[in-house]
Specification:
Number of domains: 1
Helix content: under 10%
Number of helices: 0
Strand content: over 45%
Radius of gyration: 19 Å
Largest sheet: 7 strands, antiparallel
Distance between the termini: 10 Å
Length: 101
């Protein structure tokens, strides 16, 4: 059985036991989180409008962290214009513990 969940403006296909990296959540390590289910799949497919009624995906927060640094470099030729900045996107590592539906 799998589910399509939505969090952080993105959608993820998850099964029980999966470990996913999502946009930063305001939860501590060890907390349980619940995600809305957009679609359930398995023997039959159940599509929500916009979410499946009575279905939920539960997960456990494993880690809060930051991704690898990317370099943002702006440059205009012949104008002596250069700007260099770095960015590390925060993430939350979540293990999917149960799919109820």
């Amino acid at each position: 059985m799998y589910a399509i969940i939505a969090t952080g403006g993105k959608q993820y296909r998850v099964s029980q036991g999966d470990v996913i990296y999502v946009e930063k959540l305001d939860n501590q390590v060890g907390d349980e989180v619940t995600f809305p289910v957009l679609m359930l799949g398995g023997d039959t497919v159940e599509v929500g409008n916009p979410v499946v009624a009575g279905a939920a995906v539960k997960g456990k927060v494993l880690q809060q962290g930051k991704g690898k640094k990317i370099i943002v470099f702006k440059y205009k030729s012949k104008k002596n214009y250069r700007r260099k900045a770095g960015h590390r996107q925060p993430f939350t590592k979540v293990e999917i513990t149960a799919i109820n539906g």
